[in-house]
Design brief:
The complex is a heterodimer of chains A (about 290) and B (about 350).
Chain A (H helix, E strand, L loop, with lengths): L1 H31 L6 H17 L4 H23 L8 H23 L13 E3 L2 E3 L1 H23 L1 H11 L1 H6 L4 H27 L6 H15 L3 H22 L2 H18 L4 H4 L6
Antiparallel strand pairs in A: 1-2
Helix pairs in contact in A: 1-5, 1-8, 1-9, 1-10, 2-3, 2-8, 2-9, 3-8, 5-6, 5-8, 6-8, 9-10, 9-11, 10-11
Chain B lengths: L2 H18 L6 H23 L7 H19 L2 H25 L4 H20 L7 E2 L2 E2 L6 E2 L5 E2 L2 E5 L3 H23 L1 H11 L1 H6 L4 H27 L1 E2 L6 H14 L5 H19 L5 H15 L4 H14 L6 H9 L1
Antiparallel strand pairs in B: 1-2, 3-6, 4-5
Classes of the chains: A mainly alpha (about 290), B mainly alpha (about 350).
Amino acid sequence: MDYAVVVIIEVLYAISVLALISAGLAVIFGMMRVINLAHGEFLVLGSYAAIFSNRYGVPIYLAILVAAPLAGAVWGFIVERLIVRWLYGRLINTMLATWGLSLAMMGAFVMIFGNTQTGISAPIAGFTVGAYQINGYNLFIIAMAIVVMAGLYAVMKGTRAGLVARAAMQRPDMAQAFGYNTSQVYMWTFVAGSALAGLAGGILTPIFGAIPSGGANYIAKAFITVITGGASVVSGTLASASILGLVYQIFTFLSTSVVGEIALLIAAVVLLRILPTGITGRFLRNRV
Amino acid sequence: MKTGREILLTAIVGFIFMFALPLLLSHYTLTVLTAFAILALSLGFVWGYGGILCFGQAAFYGLGGYAFAVAAINTQMPWLGFLAAILIPAIVAALLGAMMFYGRLSDVYMAVVTLVFTLILFKFMNTTAGEAYRIGSARLGGYNGIPGFPTLTKPWNPTDYLYNESLYYFAFLLLIALYLIVRLILKSPFGRALVGIRENELRAELMGYDVRLLKTVAFTIGGAIAGIAGCIFANWAEIITPNMFSLGQSSEIIIWTIVGGAGTLAGPIIGAGVLGYLKIALGENSGLNNFFIMGIVLIAAVLFLPRGIFPTVQSLLSRVSLGRPRQRISRRRRSRAG
């Protein structure tokens, strides 16, 4: 019984981590068909923002939940204006340019922070279930994943901004004809996605810490989750994060976490072979 | 230009470079740059002419290296290893390509599959430390890689190793030969059909070409060439590590190709040589981080030189000499589409 609780929490945790690190990328890809390959470095940036603002006296929750997304948003704004906006509609070129950005940011992190791992300790203590120890912060991550996903859904379905954003993505010409500046909409969508990336980086800092090369780990998983999910932002991400997170955690329990990661990657490839346009390309169409 | 004359001309230019370059740089450095050039040639063919953007060309490069080392250790006959370094990446590329092209995956999805495939290999190879992971008498060695395998020898004298100067000339001759082979492939009906697919896949298909098959074959050829590059690298470094599969390696190949000019064959080779040298030179006196510079170069190339340096210079030169711009439609299309 205790073991079952532990397993369930671990599975939920794996799914939540995937959902969190993919959310920002999913917004940018799902809405704008732009793949930001520097997404992983945006998360690392969020981590550094959280760590250093905390070190200079910002309370830890403020550092994680405010400073980190703020850093992501500001940097996303700069990147969109300088690089991404010239490349809309050229998917491959955006991927290449943002890959370059990813390398450059990684190099910059090494030059600024040095090639070492830094971190902050988790603000929530662990507790025990029967004979097992559970990391209390994992529950916080699960809660935050739910909040982020629900928030995304609410914004896109329920607010005027979400409506305009979706309209601008589906029919840019029509949105423009109704007087909305699509270039601005794109910009703010990219900023929102970047803020989500920073937030995810901040939330995950107490678990993974911050290391200059850490982005590569994030981007692979996020990229895979988003592509496997397909074009629908919330439902696609949730569906693929659930499947891939489940596969990962099962194989991690059976063997080691490396086997789990390999199983996750293979599962993604198999899924794409069966559903070439992602899960929401076939199921749950036209959902948010 | 007649095919015969072009081959002759290319060979002459190649030989001039082969003998002129050692005046500038050491044979040791040039050998690894040649391996990079062969690697860039493989992506230049697959991406520039086949229109297949492979984010995981490093996978075949690494497989070539590992296939060579494992076969050479087991048979003690390095030339069998050389064959293995061509065959195994080719077979793997054929399987992966068939899966992607017969599955009709589109651009992004193909990118993710090739990227993931490379990551799987990278992660797997990093965990193969210990006795359990061995192929024949070759231990895969995990993070530390495989050191101490027999390297290539002169075929007529098995104790005379290809080393430093001789390895360089061997590698460069291979580069010239592979360049010519790819040129000939592109002049063949198969090559023309491939370029047709790149320009308009649907039209090629409606004309009766089996797009899936042709792309798979092109991908396989690319894999084989990358495998040869891996074999040269293994002979040069005399050790192979999982880093050959790393994302950094994959990105470098793409950077060389795009900076040199996708859609040409000489461009990627030049890109690999120049940027590869830049990286080595920067590595020696590292004030700036290597990744930082490579990243900036890639961003700048995508934003300002989407056609690559080589085609840009080429069209500038022809504009100067002819007095009017001579642009090929295919090139213009290329830069717009990808």
